[in-house]
Amino acid sequence: MLNGNRITLFVVGLLLINFLLVLPATVRAQDPPFTIRSAHIYLDNKVYLVNANIHYSLTRPVLDALRNGVPLTIELRIELIQNRDWPWWNETIAVIKQRYRLRYFALAQHYVLRNLNMGTESSYQTLGAALEALGRLKELPLIDQNLLPAGENYVARMRVALDIESLPTPLRLLAYLSSRWRLTSEWYTWKPQL
């Protein structure tokens, strides 16, 4: 009878562990860690530019890794699609990938945000300030006005994600296995007036 109780406790323990591992994925499915709140395309000096407002929140393992010196690379992807009558005839006109690296320097107790495309850096005293700055996308060039056929309908979409491939190898293996490392937004889609 004692062995039966141990087996029951073992099974209940496994079910509890499974529940605790699945729960964070369920919560994240309802509330994505990265959320694109708004995006806008406008014309300035014959170049279409993008502004966006993005909210970032980090899960505990990602936050712990960052605070222990692991740099995080975040990739923003924007697509401009020529919308045709038949969806399979749609054509992608422009694709922009913007990459950022966020690092924490423990001795100086500050965060550094680097735009990997342009090579510019900014320093912040708090993680909140760094994530807020990362979430304010301003005047990102998308496409020259002369490259767009006039009188067409367009759809724009944007997505942002943590780049797991840029993590150090031992951590990358863990990130592939844990849903708590898969930080990504849903596609944010809108019809710009071009």
3D structure, described in words:
This protein has 194 residues and is an alpha+beta fold. The protein folds into 2 domains: 1-31; 32-190, Immunoglobulin-like, CATH 2.60.40. Helices cover 28% and strands 41% of the residues. The strands form 2 sheets. Strands 6-5-4-3-8-9 form a 6-stranded antiparallel sheet. The protein is globular and about 55 Å long.
Give helix and strand order, one letter per element, not per position: HEEHEEEEHEEHE
* DSSP strand tally: 9
The CATH class of the largest domain = Mainly Beta
- Cα separation of the termini: 75 Å
What is the arithmetic mean of pLDDT? 85
Largest sheet: 6 strands, antiparallel
Form type: globular
Strand fraction equals 35-45%
CATH architecture label name of the largest domain:
Sandwich
- If strands are numbered along the chain, what order do they take across the biggest sheet? 6-5-4-3-8-9
Which value, in Å, is the CA radius of gyration?
21 Å
Which regions contain 5 or more consecutive residues with pLDDT less than 50? 7-20, 23-29
CATH third-tier fold name of the largest domain: Immunoglobulin-like
**Count of discrete alpha- or pi-helical segments spanning 4 or more residues:** 4
Q: State the secondary-structure class.
A: alpha+beta
Q: Indicate the percent of residues in helices.
A: 25-40%
Number of domains: 2
